[in-house]
Design goal:
Elements (H helix, E strand, L loop, with lengths): L1 H10 L2 H6 L5 E3 L2 E4 L11 E4 L4 E4 L5 E2 L1 H8 L4 H12 L8 H25 L3 H9 L4 H6 L3 E3 L4 H8 L4 H6 L3 E3 L5 E3 L4 E7 L5 E8 L11 E3 L15 H11 L1 E5 L2 H9 L5 E3 L7 H10 L2 E5 L4 H15 L4 E5 L7 H7 L3 H7 L2 E2 H10 L2 H5 L1 H16 L4 H15 L3 H21 L15 H13 L3 H8 L7 H8 L7 H11 L4 H37 L2 H22 L1
Parallel strand pairs: 12-13, 12-14, 14-15
Antiparallel strand pairs: 1-2, 2-3, 3-4, 4-5, 6-9, 7-8, 9-10, 10-11, 15-16
Helix pairs in contact: 1-4, 3-4, 11-14, 16-19, 18-19, 18-20, 21-22, 21-23, 21-24, 21-25, 25-26
The structure holds zinc ion.
């Protein structure tokens, strides 16, 4: 198989092949064009003939010729391979039956089960009436292929009749062997919501009980277990339908459950996703950040809702999202609100307020907070803590200013508190790896890393610049120096393509200007770090009353300030 893949790639060079789909123009050593996978006006889609790969710097999709076909033609791996083999005139003697068995059959089973559940919905009056009574119309039921699981062994027998192996159906998570060794349907008497992967294939289900089945001792919602085609931390319900609208508006509306999503969709809100159960994972946020910069969340108007909002805010801030809040007032959830008034959500979204503003209102309008100084102090500290995690300094500053206004505490006092929080936080980060899943290094990419990365890209444009950049290597993290010195390394592939994307059609003079600016920024970052360290020395000297050390450090501080000013000019 590997041999056949190689043969296909040899016969179908990636450049010629992709050119058959979209126009490409030269950009440095590579080629660029408008990305077919996200709407854009300036090209960020790069094809590298050397590496036989493509990558889009707008939506961060990328891969080889096979992944291109999978995405463009909406095919799974074996199908894409078959498609390409035909084009290349390559015989696929053994199209990995193992692979076909492992994955292909799971897609087929989920697809067949979905069709079965859909047809059952229209046979079961109680189920159909229940779902209609929740407000979904026939069009939505059809579009999202909502079904009904009668349970017992109905699906099991259906799948066997269709020629599937019970073992495969068990692997797909749709049937199980009971204690007496009999195969039974996993879902019984539930409304079935198919969960789709990014290309829109059903890979799992959520089943919701209703009516007589809805007793105390059964869970309201049951999901398919994870399988080799379903990883629940990677799938966001509804995204396969809403991603285009999300990227068009750069805004995503986050709702809790499938019903909320479906009602919102039906009422014309086409840029939503449902986090159903898992909450946001890193993978979700990374994926969404590529297509959106604003998240609108809805939260209950009580303490629990406020806490949930603050948790989400904290997480989203680290990805540099703008966060706005909507509230459904007296309604329990969006689904309920929309059932009463289909225009409700659109109106509420128009009135979304930034999360911090929402909090100011909640906290500072309270008589208790205004009167109790200690309480007010705690509230202000709490908010500064949240703000300290904002990734963008300009945004952070904006909100500290607003906080000053809302609380009546001076900017100077708030700034001082904030810098204390920031330095404690960076100390804590240095001394121990954080246990939160979001504060992983990769998401805390420092400014130095960002600058160094750009310099690496710049170094690939020509050798003269490369040599000039290397004369400043003392300021750069070693990993980036290695990348410049070994451009052939596998790990540098992405930066090579980024180079074409960023500088592919840039003239020499602009490149020089870019170089000077980046080196300046790099040196400034270096000086800032020295400045921080010196400031610590000054504080310590003050504390213990060591005048000599104090004077010395102050002198150094002045020198650094002068150097920084010189650089800035
Ligand atoms: Zn793209």
């Amino acid at each position: 198989m590997a041999k056949e893949v190689d043969l296909i790639k040899e016969k179908l060079p990636v450049l010629d092949f992709i050119r058959g789909y979209i126009p490409l123009t030269p950009a440095g050593r590579n080629f660029k064009g408008l990305c077919p996978f996200h709407p854009e006006k300036t090209p960020s889609f790069i094809v590298s003939p050397d590496k036989q790969r493509w990558h889009c710097f707008g939506c961060a999709e990328g891969g080889d010729i096979i992944t291109f076909v999978m995405k463009y033609e909406n095919l799974e791996f074996p199908e894409a391979l078959r498609f390409l083999a035909e084009r290349a005139g390559v015989q696929l003697r053994a199209l990995n039956p193992q692979h076909e068995r492992e994955f292909g059959v799971l897609y087929d089973i989920n697809e067949e089960a979905k069709n079965f559940y859909v047809s059952e919905l229209y046979k079961n009056t109680a189920a159909y009436e229940y779902i209609k009574s929740r407000g979904l119309n026939d069009e939505t039921l059809k579009e999202f292929e909502i079904g009904f699981s009668p349970g017992g062994e109905a699906l099991t027998l259906h799948l066997i009749k269709k020629g599937f192996d019970v073992n495969d159906a068990t692997r797909a998570g749709l049937i199980y062997k009971n204690s007496r060794g009999l195969y039974r349907d996993r879902f019984e008497g539930r409304i079935m919501f198919p969960i789709y992967n990014h290309v829109g294939k059903p890979v799992a289900f959520t089943g919701r009980v209703f009516g007589a089945h809805a007793t105390e001792d059964v869970p309201k919602y049951v999901n398919s277990p994870e399988t080799s085609v379903f990883n629940k931390s990677r799938v966001l319900y509804g995204l396969h339908k809403s991603k285009l609208e999300i990227s068009r508006e750069r805004t995503v509306v986050v709702v809790e459950g499938q019903m909320d999503f479906l009602m919102a969709w039906q009422c014309g809100v086409r840029n939503a996703v449902a986090v159903s159960g898992t909450g946001f994972t890193e993978f979700h946020l990374e994926k969404l950040r590529r297509i959106a910069d604003t998240v609108i969340g809805s939260f209950d108007n009580d303490d629990a809702g406020r806490k949930a909002m603050e948790r989400m805010l904290d997480m989203l801030n680290r990805y540099d999202f703008h966060v706005s809040v909507i509230s459904f007032g007296e309604f329990k959830d969006p689904a309920e609100a929309l059932q009463k008034d289909p225009t409700y959500m659109k109106r509420v979204i128009e009135k979304a307020v930034p999360a911090f503003e929402f909090m100011f209102e909640r906290y500072f309008n309270s008589e208790k907070v205004r009167k109790d100084l200690a309480l007010k102090d705690r509230v202000v500290n709490h908010m500064l803590n949240l703000m300290s995690r904002l990734k963008n300094p300009a945004t952070r500053n904006h909100w500290v200013e607003k906080l000053s206004f809302a609380s009546g505490i001076s900017m100077t006092a708030l700034d001082e508190k904030l810098s204390d929080i920031l330095s404690t936080a960076s100390d804590a980060k240095k001394s121990s790896a954080s246990n939160s899943e979001i504060t992983k290094e990769q998401f805390e990419e420092s400014r130095v890393d960002m600058i160094a990365k750009r310099l690496v890209s710049l170094s690939f444009t020509n050798d003269k610049l490369k040599d000039m950049i290397l004369t400043n290597k003392e300021y750069m993290p070693q990993g980036f120096v290695n990348a410049i010195e070994h451009p052939e390394a596998e790990s540098v592939e992405m930066l090579q393509m980024q180079s074409s994307y960023l500088f592919g059609s840039t003239d020499e003079k602009t490149l020089q200007g870019e170089y000077l600016e980046l080196i300046k920024q790099l040196k400034l970052e270096h000086l800032k770090r020295v400045q921080d360290a010196t400031r610590d020395i000054i504080r310590a000297a003050e504390r213990i009353g060591n005048d000599e050390k104090y004077d010395e450090a102050m002198k150094k501080m002045n020198e650094i300030s002068k150097q920084m000013n010189d650089l800035k000019q």
